[in-house]
Amino acid sequence: MEDVTDPAFRLLCKRFGADRVYTEFVNADALVRDVASTTRKLQISDAERPVAIQIYGREPESMAEAARIVEQAKPDFIDINFGCPVKKVAGKGAGAGLLRDVPKMLEITRAVVNAVHVPVTAKTRLGWNEEQKIIVDLAEALQDCGIQELAIHGRTRAQMYTGEADWTLIGEVKNNPRMHIPIIGNGDVTTPERAKECFNTYGVDAIMIGRGTFGCPWIFEDMKHYLETDELLPARPMAWCVDILKEHVECSIKWIGDERKGIIHSRRHFANSPVFKGLYDFKQTRIALLRADTKSEVFEIMDRIVKQWGS
Predict the structure, then answer these.
(1) CA 234, chain centre distance (Å)
(2) Do residues 81 and 25 make contact, with C-beta atoms less than 8 angstroms apart?
(3) Helices (H), the chain
(4) Per-residue confidence of the chain (311 residues) as pLDDT tens digits?
(5) Is the whole model's pTM more than 0.90, yes or no?
(6) Residue in 13, 84, 145, 198 annotated catalytic
(7) 241 carries an active-site annotation
(8) Got the DSSP string for 172-205?
(9) Nearest to 145 by CA among 186, 187, 102, 188
(10) Rounded to an integer, what distance in angstroms lies between the CA atom of residue 212 and that of residue 208?
(11) CA–CA separation, 257 and 239 (whole Å)
(12) What SS3 state is found at 79?
């Protein structure tokens, strides 16, 4: 979720019912070196709480030192990323790359847990590939290292984000009588109905929503309403949704302090928003929206979309 869960977006998600939010993941080595763009990611506010700061790295010493630095920002949790599959992270032995070196993963986990007083959680995947789905045993080992919660994405590293998330092993971890920490399920939960199915079928303690939030921070409100009432909220008017997307752009610009950079930072959200999916002959409009680099231009295109396709 790099370049996604910035403070502006986290606050929107909280407004619509997210029980917990996570920062963009923070590179431990860069944090130890005091790289400005990395330390900036430690900015959190009381309005976000409970909030976790997520770190990643490949060496126990730097991860422990990064955790101590993070603790000074006073997050409610420190989360260790053992799940990022992208080449520049996993290929260098961090994130999901540590699924190929479990002893080091556990060494890192113990080092971070022992370095701080704030609760430590972790997120990982089912395993490196289809032949190495090690999550059931790995979950026990991570628990023994002292983590307070474990989030599991239902794919292997080899899958990246392709195919369907497999929740069966997530359920197996949750129902393992030797596990006593909360288990959070993640992967392909994009509708209220699917959220309820995952709770009922697999018994997880919580569900983590990732890509389903893109351009749709109100997804938490939709899911909570369905979980509580078994009824779907009425579809929101396009104009209302676009106003939220505009607000996100405004907040991103304010947070970054530069109009063009703020637009680029929030572009992934309005470009991938479900609000615009399925609109007839939308390709050229979408391209124009992605190329716009001033707020007035972005908002003008959004207004045209509402006028042409909205209700």
Answers:
(1) 26
(2) yes
(3) 7-15, 28-32, 36-39, 60-71, 87-90, 102-115, 135-144, 168-174, 192-202, 219-229, 238-256, 259-272, 283-291, 295-309
(4) 666 788 989 999 999 999 999 999 999 999 999 999 999 999 999 999 999 999 999 999 999 999 999 999 999 999 999 999 999 999 999 999 999 999 999 999 999 999 999 999 999 999 999 999 999 999 999 999 999 999 999 999 999 999 999 999 999 999 999 999 999 999 999 999 999 999 999 999 999 999 899 999 999 999 999 999 999 999 999 999 999 999 999 999 998 899 998 998 888 787 778 888 888 888 888 889 889 989 999 999 999 999 988 76
(5) yes
(6) 84
(7) no
(8) HHHT-TT--S-EEEESS--SHHHHHHHHHHH--S
(9) 102
(10) 10
(11) 27
(12) strand
Does the bond joining 50 to the residue before it have cis omega, within 30 degrees of 0? Answer: yes
pLDDT value, residue 2 = 65
Q: How far apart (Å, rounded) are the C-alpha atoms in residues 246 and 234?
A: 21
Angle, vertex CA 269, rays to CA 263 and CA 272, nearest 5: 125
Q: Taking a C-beta distance cutoff of 8 angstroms, is the pair 73, 41 a contact?
A: no
The pLDDT value given to residue 308: 86
Which one-letter amino acid corresponds to residue 85? P
**Spatial contact of 217 and 248, defined as CB atoms under 8 Å apart:** yes
Q: Are the CB atoms for 9 and 269 separated by under 8 Å?
A: yes
| Gap between the Cα atoms of 209 and 187, Å rounded | 7
In angstroms, rounded to a whole number, what is the distance separating the alpha carbons of residues 153 and 25?
A: 16
Burial of 265-285, coded b for 16+ CB within 10 Å and e otherwise, reads bbbbbbebbebbeeeeeeeeb
